[in-house]
Design a protein that fits this description.
Helix content: 25-40%
Largest sheet: 5 strands, antiparallel
Radius of gyration: 28 Å
Oligomer: single chain
CATH superfamily: GSPII I/J protein-like
Organism: Steroidobacter agaridevorans
Protein name: Type II secretion system protein J
CATH topology: Pili subunits
Distance between the termini: 99 Å
CATH class: Alpha Beta
Strand content: 25-35%
Membrane topology: Single-pass membrane protein
Number of strands: 11
Family: Belongs to the GSP J family.
Keywords: Cell inner membrane, Cell membrane, Membrane, Methylation, Transmembrane, Transmembrane helix
Length: about 200
Amino acid sequence: MRARGFTLVEVLVAIFIFAIVSAIAMGGYNELVKQSDIVDAGAARTRAIQATMQRLNLDFTSLEPRPVRQPLGDGLVPALRADEKGGGDSLVELTHSGWSNPAGVPRSTLQRVAYRVEDKKLIRDYWLALDRTMSSEPESAEMLDGVKSLKFRFMDPNRTWHDQWPPLGYSPADAPWVRPIAVEFTLELEDWGELKRLVEVSG
Protein backbone atom coordinates (compact mmCIF):
# COMPACT_ATOMS: atom_id res chain seq x y z
CA MET A 1 0.00 0.00 0.00
CA ARG A 2 1.46 3.27 -1.06
CA ALA A 3 1.98 5.95 1.69
CA ARG A 4 -0.21 9.00 1.35
CA GLY A 5 1.62 12.34 1.03
CA PHE A 6 0.73 15.56 2.81
CA THR A 7 -1.94 17.68 1.30
CA LEU A 8 -1.39 21.35 0.64
CA VAL A 9 -3.74 22.25 3.48
CA GLU A 10 -1.79 20.08 5.91
CA VAL A 11 1.47 21.68 4.84
CA LEU A 12 0.04 25.16 5.27
CA VAL A 13 -1.33 24.28 8.71
CA ALA A 14 2.06 22.88 9.73
CA ILE A 15 3.83 26.02 8.50
CA PHE A 16 1.31 28.19 10.34
CA ILE A 17 1.79 26.28 13.60
CA PHE A 18 5.57 26.39 13.19
CA ALA A 19 5.43 30.16 12.63
CA ILE A 20 3.35 30.65 15.78
CA VAL A 21 5.68 28.49 17.89
CA SER A 22 8.73 30.30 16.46
CA ALA A 23 7.19 33.70 17.20
CA ILE A 24 6.41 32.67 20.77
CA ALA A 25 9.91 31.28 21.22
CA MET A 26 11.51 34.41 19.74
CA GLY A 27 9.35 36.63 21.92
CA GLY A 28 10.38 34.67 24.97
CA TYR A 29 14.03 34.92 23.97
CA ASN A 30 13.79 38.67 23.38
CA GLU A 31 12.10 39.12 26.75
CA LEU A 32 14.84 37.04 28.39
CA VAL A 33 17.52 39.21 26.76
CA LYS A 34 15.65 42.35 27.82
CA GLN A 35 15.40 41.18 31.41
CA SER A 36 19.07 40.20 31.38
CA ASP A 37 20.00 43.70 30.16
CA ILE A 38 17.88 45.23 32.92
CA VAL A 39 19.59 43.07 35.54
CA ASP A 40 23.05 43.95 34.17
CA ALA A 41 22.23 47.67 34.16
CA GLY A 42 20.93 47.46 37.72
CA ALA A 43 24.07 45.65 38.87
CA ALA A 44 26.30 48.23 37.17
CA ARG A 45 24.33 51.05 38.80
CA THR A 46 24.66 49.42 42.22
CA ARG A 47 28.42 49.04 41.78
CA ALA A 48 28.78 52.70 40.74
CA ILE A 49 26.81 53.88 43.78
CA GLN A 50 28.80 51.67 46.14
CA ALA A 51 32.10 52.91 44.66
CA THR A 52 31.00 56.54 45.06
CA MET A 53 29.95 56.07 48.69
CA GLN A 54 33.21 54.27 49.43
CA ARG A 55 35.27 57.03 47.79
CA LEU A 56 33.52 59.72 49.84
CA ASN A 57 34.00 57.64 52.96
CA LEU A 58 37.73 57.17 52.33
CA ASP A 59 38.33 60.85 51.56
CA PHE A 60 36.71 62.00 54.80
CA THR A 61 38.08 59.31 57.11
CA SER A 62 41.59 60.26 55.94
CA LEU A 63 41.00 64.03 56.22
CA GLU A 64 44.27 65.81 57.08
CA PRO A 65 44.69 69.19 58.86
CA ARG A 66 46.71 70.56 55.96
CA PRO A 67 45.43 73.84 54.48
CA VAL A 68 46.68 74.94 51.08
CA ARG A 69 48.01 78.27 49.96
CA GLN A 70 45.73 80.54 47.98
CA PRO A 71 46.76 80.92 44.33
CA LEU A 72 47.26 84.64 44.96
CA GLY A 73 48.66 86.15 48.14
CA ASP A 74 49.77 84.55 51.39
CA GLY A 75 46.37 83.45 52.66
CA LEU A 76 45.39 79.86 53.39
CA VAL A 77 42.45 77.83 52.13
CA PRO A 78 41.20 75.67 55.04
CA ALA A 79 42.07 71.99 55.15
CA LEU A 80 38.32 71.41 54.85
CA ARG A 81 36.09 73.99 53.23
CA ALA A 82 32.36 73.58 52.73
CA ASP A 83 29.43 75.93 52.28
CA GLU A 84 25.84 74.93 53.04
CA LYS A 85 24.72 76.70 49.86
CA GLY A 86 27.45 75.18 47.72
CA GLY A 87 29.12 78.52 47.13
CA GLY A 88 31.95 78.67 44.62
CA ASP A 89 32.64 75.95 42.11
CA SER A 90 32.48 73.04 44.57
CA LEU A 91 30.31 71.78 47.42
CA VAL A 92 33.28 70.71 49.51
CA GLU A 93 37.05 70.81 49.20
CA LEU A 94 39.51 68.96 51.43
CA THR A 95 42.97 67.54 51.91
CA HIS A 96 43.22 63.81 52.56
CA SER A 97 46.06 61.34 53.07
CA GLY A 98 46.67 57.97 51.47
CA TRP A 99 47.08 59.06 47.85
CA SER A 100 48.49 55.89 46.32
CA ASN A 101 51.74 56.15 44.38
CA PRO A 102 52.45 52.79 42.72
CA ALA A 103 54.90 54.33 40.22
CA GLY A 104 57.01 55.89 42.99
CA VAL A 105 56.69 59.42 41.60
CA PRO A 106 58.40 62.00 43.86
CA ARG A 107 55.29 63.65 45.32
CA SER A 108 53.28 63.92 48.51
CA THR A 109 50.82 61.24 49.58
CA LEU A 110 48.43 64.07 50.52
CA GLN A 111 45.89 65.04 47.89
CA ARG A 112 43.56 67.98 47.47
CA VAL A 113 40.11 67.03 46.18
CA ALA A 114 36.75 68.70 45.64
CA TYR A 115 33.24 67.49 44.89
CA ARG A 116 30.62 69.22 42.76
CA VAL A 117 27.32 68.37 41.09
CA GLU A 118 26.98 69.47 37.48
CA ASP A 119 24.21 68.45 35.04
CA LYS A 120 23.03 65.78 37.50
CA LYS A 121 26.52 64.28 37.62
CA LEU A 122 28.76 64.02 40.67
CA ILE A 123 32.26 65.17 39.73
CA ARG A 124 35.39 64.61 41.82
CA ASP A 125 38.20 67.07 41.07
CA TYR A 126 41.75 66.54 42.27
CA TRP A 127 44.99 68.47 41.92
CA LEU A 128 48.45 67.12 41.26
CA ALA A 129 49.95 69.56 43.77
CA LEU A 130 48.57 70.77 47.10
CA ASP A 131 49.60 74.41 46.77
CA ARG A 132 48.25 75.64 43.47
CA THR A 133 49.07 78.53 41.20
CA MET A 134 46.66 80.51 39.02
CA SER A 135 47.44 78.17 36.11
CA SER A 136 46.78 74.97 38.06
CA GLU A 137 43.87 73.00 36.64
CA PRO A 138 42.33 69.97 38.34
CA GLU A 139 41.89 66.52 36.91
CA SER A 140 38.21 65.54 36.93
CA ALA A 141 36.45 62.21 37.24
CA GLU A 142 32.73 61.58 36.82
CA MET A 143 31.67 59.48 39.79
CA LEU A 144 27.93 59.06 39.26
CA ASP A 145 25.00 60.29 37.19
CA GLY A 146 21.37 60.80 38.12
CA VAL A 147 22.42 62.91 41.11
CA LYS A 148 19.94 65.44 42.49
CA SER A 149 22.05 66.78 45.36
CA LEU A 150 24.92 66.13 47.77
CA LYS A 151 24.73 67.70 51.23
CA PHE A 152 27.08 67.69 54.21
CA ARG A 153 26.97 68.24 57.95
CA PHE A 154 30.01 68.49 60.21
CA MET A 155 30.37 67.76 63.93
CA ASP A 156 32.87 69.90 65.84
CA PRO A 157 34.88 68.70 68.89
CA ASN A 158 32.02 69.93 71.13
CA ARG A 159 29.64 67.59 69.27
CA THR A 160 27.72 70.44 67.66
CA TRP A 161 26.55 70.03 64.08
CA HIS A 162 27.29 72.64 61.39
CA ASP A 163 26.19 72.99 57.77
CA GLN A 164 29.36 74.83 56.80
CA TRP A 165 33.05 74.43 57.60
CA PRO A 166 35.03 75.99 59.16
CA PRO A 167 32.17 77.01 61.47
CA LEU A 168 31.78 80.52 62.76
CA GLY A 169 33.64 81.33 65.95
CA TYR A 170 37.14 80.17 65.07
CA SER A 171 39.89 82.74 64.77
CA PRO A 172 41.42 83.35 61.33
CA ALA A 173 44.62 81.76 62.62
CA ASP A 174 42.93 78.53 63.76
CA ALA A 175 40.14 78.12 61.20
CA PRO A 176 42.30 76.76 58.32
CA TRP A 177 43.61 73.91 60.48
CA VAL A 178 40.55 72.75 62.39
CA ARG A 179 38.88 69.45 61.53
CA PRO A 180 35.49 68.02 62.43
CA ILE A 181 35.31 64.78 64.39
CA ALA A 182 32.57 63.40 62.13
CA VAL A 183 31.00 64.12 58.76
CA GLU A 184 27.51 63.21 57.60
CA PHE A 185 26.81 63.26 53.89
CA THR A 186 23.49 62.75 52.12
CA LEU A 187 23.50 61.78 48.46
CA GLU A 188 20.11 62.15 46.76
CA LEU A 189 19.63 60.17 43.55
CA GLU A 190 16.81 60.19 41.02
CA ASP A 191 16.31 56.43 41.24
CA TRP A 192 17.46 55.46 44.76
CA GLY A 193 16.29 58.47 46.73
CA GLU A 194 18.42 59.61 49.69
CA LEU A 195 21.51 57.69 50.79
CA LYS A 196 23.01 58.88 54.07
CA ARG A 197 26.26 57.97 55.77
CA LEU A 198 28.01 59.09 58.95
CA VAL A 199 31.81 59.06 58.82
CA GLU A 200 34.17 59.34 61.76
CA VAL A 201 37.27 61.39 60.94
CA SER A 202 40.47 59.56 61.89
CA GLY A 203 42.85 61.07 64.42
